[in-house]
Amino acid sequence: MARDNLADGGRDADGLLVRAMARGESDALVELMRRNGPWVRGVIFAACGNADAVEDVQQQVWLSAWRRAGSLDDSGKWRSWLYALARHAGIDSARRARRRKRLRGLLGGWVPRREPAGTDAERQVLIAESHRQALDAVADLPEIYRGPFVLRHLADWSYRQIAEAMNLPVDTVETRLVRARRRLRKALGPGVQP
Amino acid sequence: MTDGRDIPANELADDPWAREMSRRLDGELEADQEEALARALLRDPAARRRMEACAAADRQAGEALRAAFVPAAPAETVDPAGWQARAKDRRWRWALRAAAVVVLGAAGGFLAYERLAPRPGPGGPGPAAVPAAARAEELGNVEGLLWHVWSPPEDALQTNSRPGLGEDVSVPLPKIQGPRRTNRAIDRHIFRVYDEADHTVYLLGVDRVRKTVHAVGKDL
Q1: Residue A124 included in any domain
Q2: Which one of A80, A98, A116 terminates a domain?
Q3: Average pLDDT of span B69-98
Q4: Residue A193 falls within a domain, yes or no?
Q5: pLDDT (tens digit, 9 = 90+) per residue, B8-63?
Q6: In whole angstroms, what is the distance from residue B95 CA to residue B99 CA?
Q7: What is the DSSP letter of B17?
Q8: Which residues in B lie closer than 8 A to residue A175 (C-beta atoms)?
């Protein structure tokens, strides 16, 4: 399929970057981050369900990738390797967040919250609200549905490539996407922007 | 939050076109499937509404994800196909740099040698017989520094048989008997080679020595 071919070209290039990173070329790491940062952030979000934690966690992911690149035997499998790094970091982050939440409960429920950045344009406020609503809906999806969904939107991979990264059958990926969309349609239903 | 495994198997029973709709949004439908879905949507207004709502929700969620996780101003793009070539270029650049240093060093050595080698006149070796390294230190410049690195054997400085400089370099001079005066003129050309890649300037110096011998006291 054309999408597969295009993405395979990108994958070869990313494989080269991973090999260069394993040789210690920091420029390769920067380029790899630029090319794959969005979907890595998406996978972290899918794993932890908290958009606020993503930026911090992704730094751990790239640091870990930099340190472990030399141990990746087959650079052709960089996709599933990076996916696993991002997912595990996201899961660890969610676990830490749950511990913090329990601790806050013990402390009386006072939780400092980060206020959203204010904008003076009404339109931007509406857009931000729409995005927040959608992100909340995605965060409420079961993790097994969030993963394929964010990869479809942020990595633009085919079903086959998502299946390869997640180590799942292609049909399972497709089914999870169908169910994710069905749930999102119900969650966002009346508020869906035309 | 559920783990998603509690979803009934017949969840999609009321939405027979859900799979095709999802595949369409992902661009994974074949042409004949696309046509079948289009026909179904034309026949079934409820399915059409579901498709529109599904597409709108998908678009909204996709925009939210991109707004949250894709940088607003992407960094300068780099052609990934050129990555390997660039790595090779870097190696070549180092080789060129090393070659330039060798050439510069050899030229510097040549210059220092040509300038400092003794030329015995009729009255003996003259002031040029001062040890070359000492002269080089007096110079206090790049040439002097290079002299230490590329200095020829000491005995070569004391004679006219200079290794690396064959006799063919010297132009035969007219033999003048009696008192004579030797004039030497040195034209120095400095070439600057600028490496744009790392903003380095390499200097390459070449001297051309002209020597004339005049009889002293005779009207030529």
Answers
A1: yes
A2: A98
A3: 63
A4: no
A5: 555 555 677 888 889 889 888 888 888 888 888 888 888 888 888 889 999 999 99
A6: 6
A7: T
A8: 19
Do A70 and A123 reside in the same domain of the chain? no
Give mean pLDDT, residues A12-16: 80
Q: Where are the alpha helices (DSSP H) in A23-121?
A: 26-48, 54-68, 78-106
A47 and A84 together in one domain: yes
Interface ipTM = 0.71
Higher pLDDT, A6 or A90: A90
Beta carbons within 8 Å of B45's beta carbon, 6+ residues apart: none
Integer Cα distance of A144 and A172 in angstroms = 10
Q: Name the range with the highest mean pLDDT among B31-45, B157-171, B185-199.
A: B31-45
| Contact of A38 with A153, CB cutoff 8 Å | no
- Residues in chain A with CB shorter than 8 Å from the CB of B3 are 142-144
Structure tokens at B120: 């015995």
A77, A145: one domain: no
In a domain, A38, yes or no: yes
Q: How far apart (Å, rounded) are the C-alpha atoms in residues B21 and B53?
A: 11
Which is nearest to A149 in space by CA: A125, A186, A115, A175? A175
Tell me how close the Cα of A107 comes to any Cα of chain B, in angstroms: 24
Q: How many domains does chain A have?
A: 2
CA neighbor of A68 nearest in space, from A47, A52, A89: A89
Q: What is the pLDDT of residue A17?
A: 87
- Among all residues of chain A, which has the CA nearest to that of B66? A154
Please check whether residue B202 is in contact with residue B193, taking contact to mean a CB–CB distance below 8 angstroms.
yes
Residue numbers of the domain that contains A130 = 108-188
Closest Cα of chain B to A110: distance in Å? 23
